[in-house]
Amino acid sequence: MSKNQNYFIWDFLRHLEATMFQRLLNKNIFIVFMNGKNSLRSYATLRNSSIKMKIMEAPAITPKTYQHKNLELGRALSPHLTIYKPQLTSMMSITLRMTGFALGVATWAIGLTSLWGSHKMEDYVEKLKTLPMNDYGWMAVKTVLGFPFSFHLVAGARHLLFDTARLMEIKQFYATGYAALVLSAIMAIAIGMVVPLKGEERQ
Q: What biological processes does GO assign it (predicted)?
């Protein structure tokens, strides 16, 4: 054996636990280093039977994300809307975000249409007035279109009150929630009633 191999052997044995090394000696296991090769081969003899050991590469493991593991196991995402009972607080929170998104899209659509459209917004409004619809139909349309604005305004003010650490009790949550729904509906109906009744002259 070369000098480097001797150093390697003693360094290897020095790091073995004392109990493990004693077991190796009791079982008459000999570690042999083969000259002329870079790899280490271990030969063991135990009770007149030989066991040949060799170094094998570990199988490649493909990393998986948390979402991929859940999909393979068939786990549902959490939180999942289908396993929770609808509540006033959660439904109002979701509706607040949906109305905010709708108002944002409408604002961008009107602005971009006015900027790059072939006609002015007044032209589109005049075309809408020519549709075969009576005053009550227009009232219903304007009420539906006005509800996202009224709800987002009232519910947003309600959340601003929550930011001041007020009305944080469960009963207060529900009381302010029902009040916000009623006030939003009244405001939406008021917006719809801007349309004059049938037979009256449009301003």
A: mitochondrial electron transport, succinate to ubiquinone; tricarboxylic acid cycle
